[in-house]
Amino acid sequence: MNLNAAQFLNLDACYTDIKTAFFALLPIPFEGAVSYGVGAAHAPQAIIEASRYLELYDEVLDFEPYKAGITTFSPTAVSANQIKIQANCYEAALKIMEMKKFPIFVGGDHSISSSTFKAVQKRYSQLSCVQIDAHADLRQEYEGSKLSHASVLARIRETGADAVQIGIRSMCMNERNTIREKSYSVYTMHDYRKNPEQVFLALQKLSGPVYLTVDVDAFDWSVIPSTGTPEPGGFLWDEAMFLFSHLFSNLNIVACDVVELSPEPGEKNSPFAAAKLIYKFMAFKIKAYCHQFSLPLPQHPDTEFNSKEG
Ligand SMILES: [Mn+2]
């Protein structure tokens, strides 16, 4: 796999070396499965471009997460053929897992997550999923496609994986019935705000490795307005950071994705917020990892820090 010309955060080469980097970022510029707004194909490039303007120091966690090393790969090849693109995503994700990197998949529309999830699941057979999203995405199929972004959690759940879905504020009656019949852990935004403890209890039951999938439409429009299928009433920034900090501290998150940003010309806030979100995931992961293995926070990727198996 080739490195991307533009690297996330525009880091110096010693921090993007694939041999020593802790994180591997894979752009997946695919939007063949969206239903409403288009533009998700441009998201990875917009996010990487915006990331140049992020501060490298995390003022809350008080360290520089990039020192763990971050490699940004060239985008996955996309085509109009959805089966082919899913296969490409799967193969690329599998390669990253074989390299023993922590993958961050950057969509693209949400349909890509079923393939990247399955690739991570190949390494971790007990893999669970936590989805942060405005939509339940539990339709068996949508507009004639089982690979629609509106079906992605149906595809992930049918692998037998356990899942907790949080922030939902849009679903159809069939999805509602499926959730009740199968006792799925699905928490609406209303549920979460009313009683976050019940959500944390459900999360506690996910004892093994976890794949975190984040649709940016989970956020409030004041944070990320540019997304394909917007819903009002989402997470405010600090509210989301509280939840993500909890997830990374309490679960063994082994991979994540950020999907469904649809950059609009002249609207810079959304790509910047998405870039900062990805960097926050890295910060939370490194902090949890150093705590788990009693390691000092990283100073350089070429140290004891990266010799441990994640
Ligand atoms: Mn969504």
Observed structural traits:
310 residues, alpha/beta, Arginase, Chain A, 9 helices, 8 strands, 15% strand
Give a written overview of the molecule.
With 310 residues, this protein is of the alpha/beta class. The protein has a single domain, classed as Ureohydrolase domain (Arginase, Chain A, 3-Layer(aba) Sandwich), CATH 3.40.800. The protein has 9 helices and 8 strands. The chain has helices at residues 43-51, 82-98, 112-123, 152-157, 173-181, 189-194, 196-204, 237-250, 269-292; strands at residues 23-28, 70-72, 102-107, 128-132, 163-168, 185-188, 209-215, 252-259. Strands 2-1-3-8-7-4-5-6 form an 8-stranded parallel beta sheet, sandwiched between helices. Helix 5 (173-181) links the parallel strand 5 (163-168) and strand 6 (185-188). Helix 8 packs parallel to helix 9 (269-292). The longest helix has 24 residues, at 269-292. It is globular and about 50 Å long. The model has no long low-confidence stretch (mean pLDDT 93).
CATH class category name: Alpha Beta
Radius of gyration: 18 Å
CATH topology: Arginase, Chain A
Q: Gap between N and C termini, in Å?
A: 21 Å
How many distinct folded domains?
Answer: 1
Task: Quote the average pLDDT.
Answer: 93
Q: Which hetero compounds are present in the coordinates?
A: manganese (II) ion
Structural class by helix and strand composition: alpha/beta
Low-confidence stretches: none
CATH superfamily: Ureohydrolase domain
- Largest sheet features: 8 strands, parallel
Dominant shape: globular
Give the % helix: 25-40%
Could you say what the CATH architecture is? 3-Layer(aba) Sandwich
